[in-house]
Design brief:
Blueprint: E1 7-8, E2 17-28, E3 32-40, E4 55-60, E5 72-73, E6 79-89, E7 92-100, E8 105-108, E9 116-128, E10 131-134, E11 138-139, E12 143-144, E13 150-159, E14 162-173, E15 178-179, E16 183-191, E17 199-215, E18 218-222, E19 228-232, H1 235-245, E20 251-254, E21 260-272, E22 281-289, E23 297-302
Parallel strand pairs: 14-23
Antiparallel strand pairs: 1-5, 2-3, 2-4, 6-7, 6-9, 8-23, 9-10, 9-11, 9-12, 13-14, 13-20, 15-17, 16-17, 17-22, 18-19, 20-21, 21-22
Length: about 300
Amino acid sequence: MATYNGVRLYENQSNVYTLAEIDTTKTIGAQEEQTTIHTFTDFATIVSPTWNLTTILMTKYTSNPLNLSASNISTGNNEIVGYRIMREQQGKLFKVADITTSDKVIYDYCCPNDTLVKYYFFPKEEISDGVYKFLSPIVSEEMKSEWASWSVIGTSIRDDNEYIVDEENIWTFYVNIDSGTMAQQNKRIQHDTYDRFPKLSVGKQRYLKSDLKCWLGNIVNNTTTDNMEKYVDDVALMEKWEEFANNGKLKLLKDIKGRTIPIDIVETKFDYIDEIPSQPVELSFSYEQITLNENITIYNKSNSNSL
């Protein structure tokens, strides 16, 4: 756990980087190691600092565009035991994860494609045993992801509406994509009456339903022979998809346009492309939306020092 005391950055700050790390050569009193704040100000000659075992805070700071605006961490003698990470997109904040100070890398799988986002890191201060409060956040620069494929991401539930990604089931599709019509399903009941027109009752039910057709495998670099790219799939991959599609767990579908949809896979079909000697496998699957993306969070984290 880390203790911050009076780290403040404001809009007139000129540092390129601010780095806080434990200095093991200096102590305060008999046992507590001193925390040293380093600042790097020369854009021309700076060598970017790196995260290591003694680092407790590292942030890049620029004034145009501003990526750390009026942020402060000031806790006195209380301990920072973690952070709450929030993603801002289209003017709304969405929870990503609660992490500890030992977590170094966070992967946010609910981030949509081609959408401007910011991340807010709210330090979690322990006031007393089991009592916490969140402090003013460190704010990232604005960023936008960009990819040219569809993906279906498997999950394992951790808590209510909180999911850890299933790293063995991250499926990416970009060969011969053919997306079906995305149809909105509504609940409407028509009641015949003695009036001229029937009466309609509209329920709250509203969800998306569609299908996707693509080749099951992907193009890889064939390093064992001629170092040329080639398309690869096999029976084992088909069986793995069958097991994944039928495991009953929430899945996240992400398209190129920027939609992220929590889904369940309803039906899977395989077709061999017989016109090609290697018989590539064409995958077709239909899916239905099962909740709103804003209602869940899907992430993964690592405490590795390799960033």
